Amino acid sequence: MLRLFLSRSNTHNINNTRRSLVSSILSTSCSSYHSQQTVAHLRKNDEAREIFLVGTSHVSKASARETEELIRLVKPDVVAVELCEERFEQLKKQMKEDKEEKTKKTKKKRSFLGDFLAIVKNVSSNRDLNALDRCLAIGLKAFYASLKSSGMEPGEEFRVAIREAERLNARLVLADRDVNKTLKALRKSVSVADVYRWFVYGEKKGGPTLPPEFEKMAAAGFNSTEMQDYMEAMKNRNACAQMMKYMQFQFPNIVSVMVHQRDDEMADAIKREKDAEKIVMVVGLAHVDGIVERLAGEYTEVMSVNDSE
Description:
By secondary structure, the protein is an alpha/beta fold. The protein is built from 15 helices and 6 strands. It has helices spanning 2-8, 18-27, 32-36, 61-74, 85-102, 112-124, 131-149, 156-168, 179-189, 192-201, 212-220, 225-234, 237-250, 252-272, 285-294; strands at residues 39-44, 50-56, 78-81, 171-174, 278-284, 299-301. Strands 4-3-5-2-1-6 form a 6-stranded mixed beta sheet, sandwiched between helices. Helix 9 packs antiparallel against helix 14 (252-272), helix 13 (237-250) packs across helix 15 and helix 14 (252-272) packs across helix 15 (285-294).
């Protein structure tokens, strides 16, 4: 998509440096890449430092391609990802297994049941989690396993980012909060009264509505190509902001734990990289606006994604 973006952009007043080229590309409002509204380009107010926040859908093949193309274009000093140490190690293990599997003549057959049993075994061995924390961990991991068994590959954009960081010899930053700390905070944020209300009364009335694309996507089902089309249609900051307003109204405590607190963590991770001139950060789209807001005192967003086409 960035190649098309390059060919269509108006690149007047561009210097011969890569930095100027990237700035021109990402700030051109007529580009097809800009219309997706998945990248936030920030520049430090008093220094020649830039951050490119790539907002992704964790099961989108297009997000993985966009991540690869942007990193190759920008050639950053630092690649930051929405992963903690534990999730990174799990992903590296999966990448190694996938690589070994490709060298074999017969591929190992995967099933949701087999993946689920492996998840239960892995989570149950973690003595730092209590019973409820383990149930939450199993539920979240089982959800992603179900996506994988349906032909989707959750986290492919992180695999791409890791490989590209290695290829460029860029520093890889694991920017997210430890997943077990997040699970514990999530468990504490949800009361029995909350669960009772959700199951008995359903959603609260009178608040923001879901984006229409989300409702269509939910109705399409995992195995439908229609679902992926709706998912791509929803992959922009405006639709995501509408989704977050709905979630904030319905589940404020959960949003605080799963989004806002992790935005704090990831913004702080960026602030610690004081020596990097160019940073590409790969995060779920729901985190982009929050991270931009937390960096606003030091950085200015070069491209406004709310400009009309």
